[in-house]
């Protein structure tokens, strides 16, 4: 214990000299010769670690004593304040030891401080009541008091304090950590080789057991170990971590290669203390990312061997993919991608034109995206301001007046009388058979927000009979209903845009759906961007008719026919483009007549044929047409290059003449993961009937 006192004082004294020299000012001393203390009170209160003593006195002792003074006598309040200060000090020391050793506390140090706090409280009480002077009026010399005090500290310190200090062995830990920094590269390589060989043996043994069970046939275990080159333009960074179960020390290594397999950056680093192998792997990934960022690399594939770390993080499915099965809750994909994987049908359709209402639930976000078909909005049953006014016209209006309050029947869905039975005009969310209150609480959780408008909207929906479902205005376009909060704030507006994007992708809407603001906010500068991002903006209270119905049009397919007409592009061929399909006009006209006749034989879908005259469109409009298309038809030609911008669910139908049997666009479709169909011609003329039949086949495969 005396060694601890002396070494701590020497260390802090040296630091004081250094700081005094650098800052050219004198610092207050941390200790006042603690080995000359004549009692525990003097040691802890006036001589040992004066800064901490002052902090505990002001931060723990004084507040605890003030509280206790109201409940008990001042003597007891003083003693409890002393014990509280020593208890906090003990817990702080336990936390420090745990941070250094990562071992479960054994609480000897806490008991050391509690014991000293108890003796100090007794000492203060005895001195104040002068009990000792009645029995021992002779005062003993300071030398005796000092010896008794140091003896008390040595005995209790060796019994409780030094036990845990010796157990954690800080000197050995410090030496091991320093040596790990000085380990030579060839020693690290040798250790890595030994680890790899050990891992291969274990993997081969495990694979042999799997093969004997017949699960994988005769697949070679070494095939999976071949390193794969990244694609052109990408780099690959392999990372790994090592972890010592005894010392909790960890290290990381990484190597970055280009698409030819040439390594141009690698290294190792000491990660210090880690609480688990998983934490070490996560630190190694962070180090690898920092190294790639410092090199200015943009397209990097990170590859590691920790499945627990890689599954929820790598690879990332962003920006969008079809719904993933068994998506881990809390994963990166669950937060920012298609995590709405659980579908709940509250009202199922009957027939091709029937009504329905359903929600897609995210386990990670604890929220839902809901959609419906044949939904009627009754603006008179939505209580809020009109919305869309100029800011200067509504100065002083409260936000509560702008947020919607939905009365019963604010939204309605049509339902056959045979399904309604005697429970007509029943509310969705009000205990009827369409959706119970329990399901509303489960899939549209109230959460921590003060006013959940979407939950109230769903709660207001009721089902009405089809004979009562009369509407004066129909909205055919795919439409998003949006309630904005902090509509003039850029951060909240950007999150609203992202939520609208996610809703469009989950429900399969086109890239530019219409938006109806279910709020009474006025216009702001940010509304210009809403107009640019979506096909149209309307306010719920601004509908000209008292009743409006939103029909889901997800069953409408845009079929884009990419045309290749004559235009002046370059001086070759007399300034005219060579035709790849001689009867292109005939084929398009046949498709147009087939769609316009209404007798397509596709009862579940409606078709919108788009005349893709790309030469007369701006580049922005060309890309928009591609992204809004469900099926893209075209003869082999440069215009089909636009399919690089197509959405994941797009189908490509290429008409290829005998002179242009080239795989350009088939390979692009394969790279994009798009469904691809080809019609190979004998010459350069296509049979319109055959094109129509092929298109019908494609649309039927899409659920029509």
Automatic annotation (TrEMBL):
Domain Wax synthase: 28-115
Superkingdom of this protein's organism: Eukaryota
Segments traversing the membrane: 80-100, 106-126, 147-166
The keyword Kinase is annotated on this UniProt entry: no
Gene3D superfamilies documented for this protein: Ribonuclease H-like superfamily/Ribonuclease H (3.30.420.10)
Signal peptide: 1-20
A GO cellular-component term linked to this record: Golgi membrane
GO function term, MF aspect, one: pentosyltransferase activity
Record-annotated Glycosyltransferase 61 catalytic domain positions: 493-652
Membrane topology: Single-pass type II membrane protein; Multi-pass membrane protein
Subcellular locations according to the entry: Golgi apparatus membrane; Membrane
CDD domains to which the protein is assigned, alphabetical: RNase_H_like (cd06222)
UniProt keyword annotations, A-Z: Glycoprotein, Glycosyltransferase, Membrane, Signal, Transferase, Transmembrane, Transmembrane helix
Annotated ranges, domain RNase H type-1: 238-311
Primary localisation category: Golgi
Protein name in the entry: RNase H type-1 domain-containing protein
């Amino acid at each position: 214990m005396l060694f601890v006192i002396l070494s701590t004082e020497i260390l802090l004294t040296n630091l004081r000299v250094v700081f005094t020299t650098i800052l050219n000012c004198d610092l207050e001393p941390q200790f006042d010769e603690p080995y000359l203390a004549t009692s525990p009170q003097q040691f802890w209160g006036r001589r040992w670690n004066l800064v901490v003593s002052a902090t505990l006195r002001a931060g723990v002792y004084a507040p605890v004593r003030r509280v206790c003074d109201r409940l008990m006598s001042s003597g007891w309040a003083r003693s409890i304040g002393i014990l509280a200060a020593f208890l906090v000090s003990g817990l702080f020391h336990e936390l420090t030891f745990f941070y250094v050793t990562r071992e479960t506390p054994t609480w000897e140090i806490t008991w050391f401080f509690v014991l000293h706090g108890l003796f100090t409280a007794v000492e203060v009480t005895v001195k104040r009541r002068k009990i000792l002077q009645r029995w021992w009026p002779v005062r003993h010399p300071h030398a005796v008091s000092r010896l008794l005090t140091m003896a008390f500290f040595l005995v209790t310190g060796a019994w409780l304090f030094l036990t845990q200090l010796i157990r954690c062995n800080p000197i050995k830990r410090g030496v091991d950590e320093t040596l790990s920094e000085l380990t030579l590269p060839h020693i690290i390589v040798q250790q890595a080789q030994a680890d790899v060989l050990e891992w291969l043996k274990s993997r081969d043994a495990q694979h042999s057991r799997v093969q004997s069970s017949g699960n994988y046939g005769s697949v070679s275990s070494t095939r999976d170990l071949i390193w794969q080159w990244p694609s052109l333009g990408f780099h690959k960074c392999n990372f790994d971590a090592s972890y010592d179960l005894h010392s909790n020390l960890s290290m990381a290594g990484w190597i970055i290669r280009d698409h030819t397999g040439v390594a141009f950056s690698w290294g190792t680093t000491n990660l210090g203390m880690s609480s688990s192998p998983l934490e070490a792997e996560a630190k190694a990934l962070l180090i690898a990312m920092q190294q790639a960022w410092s090199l200015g690399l943009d397209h990097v594939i990170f590859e590691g061997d920790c499945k627990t770390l890689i599954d929820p993080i790598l690879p990332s499915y962003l920006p969008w993919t079809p719904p993933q099965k068994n998506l881990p809750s809390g994963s990166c994909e669950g937060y920012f991608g298609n995590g709405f994987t659980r579908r709940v049908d509250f009202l199922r359709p009957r027939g091709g034109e029937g009504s329905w209402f359903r929600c897609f639930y995210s386990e990670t976000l604890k929220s839902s995206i809901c959609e419906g078909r044949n939904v009627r909005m009754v603006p008179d049953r939505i209580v809020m301001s009109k919305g869309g006014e100029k800011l200067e016209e509504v100065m002083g209006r409260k936000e509560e007046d702008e947020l919607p309050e939905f009365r019963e029947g604010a939204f309605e869905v049509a339902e056959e009388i045979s399904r309604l039975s005697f429970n007509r005009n029943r509310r969705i969310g009000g205990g009827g058979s369409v959706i119970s209150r329990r399901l509303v609480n489960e899939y549209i959780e109230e959460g921590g927000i003060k006013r959940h408008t979407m939950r109230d909207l769903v709660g207001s929906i009721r089902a009405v009979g089809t004979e009562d479902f009369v509407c004066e205005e129909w909205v055919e376009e795919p439409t998003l209903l949006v309630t904005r909060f902090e509509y003039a704030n850029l951060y909240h507006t950007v999150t609203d845009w992202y939520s609208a994007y996610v809703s469009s992708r989950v429900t399969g809407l086109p890239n530019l759906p219409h938006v109806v603001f279910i709020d009474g906010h006025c216009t702001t500068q940010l509304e210009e961007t809403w107009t640019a991002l979506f096909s149209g903006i309307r306010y719920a209270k601004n509908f000209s008719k008292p009743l409006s119905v939103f029909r889901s049009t997800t069953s409408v397919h845009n079929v884009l026919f990419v045309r290749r007409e004559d235009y002046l592009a370059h001086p070759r061929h007399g300034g005219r483009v060579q035709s790849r399909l001689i009867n292109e006009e005939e084929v398009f006209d046949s498709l147009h007549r087939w769609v316009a006749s209404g007798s397509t034989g596709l009862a579940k879908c409606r078709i919108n044929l788009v005349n893709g005259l790309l030469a007369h469109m701006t580049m922005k409009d060309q890309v928009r047409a591609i992204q809004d298309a469900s099926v893209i038809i075209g003869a082999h030609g440069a215009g089909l290059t636009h399919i690089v911008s197509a959405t994941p669910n797009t189908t490509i139908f290429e008409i290829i003449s005998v002179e242009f049997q080239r795989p350009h666009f088939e390979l692009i479709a394969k790279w994009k993961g798009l469904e691809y169909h080809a019609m190979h011609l004998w010459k350069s003329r296509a049979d319109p009937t055959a094109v129509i039949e092929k298109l019908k086949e494609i649309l039927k495969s899409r659920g029509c």
